Amino acid sequence: xxxxxxxxxxxxxxxxxxxxxxxxxxxxxxxxxxxxxxxxxxxxxxxxxxxxxxxxxxxxxxxxxxxxxxxxxxxxxxxxxxxxxxxxxxxxxxxxxxxxxxxxxxxxxxxxxxxxxxxxxxxxxxxxxxxxxxxxxxxxxxxxxxxxxxxxxxxxxxxxxxxxxxxxxxxxxxxxxxxxxxxxxxxxxxxxxxxxxxxxxxxxxxxxxxxxxxxxxxxxxxxxxxxxxxxxxxxxxxxxxxxxxxxxxxxxxxxxxxxxxxxxxxxxxxxxxxxxxxxxxxxxxxxxxxxxxxxxxxxxxxxxxxxxxxxxxxxxxxxxxxxxxxxxxxxxxxxxxxxxxxxxxxxxxxxxxxxxxxxxxxxxxxxxxxxxxxxxxxxxxxxxxxxxxxxxxxxxxxxxxxxxxxxxxxxxxxxxxxxxxxxxx
Length: 425
What we know:
Layout: E1 8-12, E2 15-17, E3 23-27, E4 34-42, E5 48-56, E6 63-64, E7 72-73, H1 82-85, E8 88-89, E9 106-113, E10 128-135, E11 142-148, E12 151-157, E13 164-171, H2 180-187, E14 191-195, E15 210-211, H3 212-223, E16 228-238, H4 240-251, E17 255-261, E18 272-274, E19 277-279, E20 290-291, E21 297-298, E22 325-330, H5 338-351, E23 357-362, E24 379-381, E25 388-390, H6 395-416
Parallel strand pairs: 2-10, 13-14, 13-16, 15-18, 16-17, 17-22, 22-23
Antiparallel strand pairs: 1-3, 3-6, 4-5, 4-9, 5-7, 5-8, 9-10, 11-12, 12-14, 18-19, 20-21, 24-25
């Protein structure tokens, strides 16, 4: 009789950035054996995030996630990164929290069970296991606290002397510095200012209005930094951050490339001020919101309609933007009507002869489009209302959209942010 095969679980690379793919293989199985693969981690709040999928080995006793389809679990079909995409908290409405992204990675554990294991948090010993380190930054990336005039944030610098193309990252209205995207942008060669605008350090604790002069100060700070090229900077924003990014593109001359992710095309919630100019905001219409059976709110219908002539003065004048704009849109966004907004804005630009507005939409993708490898966030407590909000997204479609939109973002910035004009030291 032959010796019994030993089950082995291999994941490569074992150390990588969070936006890089991982190959997972299980060997030493019986032909047509049913197994369970599980991924899990504990975040900085002590919350367990987990995912699982069921597979049937091939005739050689092997499961290769690049070719083997999942028969069930958190997803179906061939999905090489599905275990990472599907990570979800054991407590409802929690988002993956990682405080020190500079010095410590996500430690993701992979377990394989030689049977169908329906309990995703089973304490039974696995047949094989391994663990991975998923880093947010390459070695040498620096994160420097910024307290310059009124400007507050963190500047992420790539390794080396530079000068580097500059990007300002504005994340929604969450009252903290969100470092996932800035770290990865710095790892890809962009000097990235993660810019706070309220509720951080000594900034106002509430956002009463959007002061565009503050954001112009941030642009001037970045283009005058000795490690940043002086020809202009890119802007990227999500949700409320996308609204602000679009406003910056419309009014601030040193913006050379803008990426708007699932935002509106009008000023909402808070008025926008820039010098003597004030653009009145469309108020949210909370009475139109819907609450699902789990207590989460669908905000999709809340802002006023920008097509209504009564709201025309709240629409941002995209035709005034001097540089290209890329709209990235999830078609299953449950927070904004992002696709109609982006289409209206592109049409308006073209009607005024502006041809460098681009729209990329992703079927099945939700509101929070992040860099790839980060799990889908379906529901999150809204920082403004304190209520759980629906963000939308179908797992495989959304996470594939994160991969594609990230590549498009990097290509867009590489194409349009000049990198040949150093500052004087």
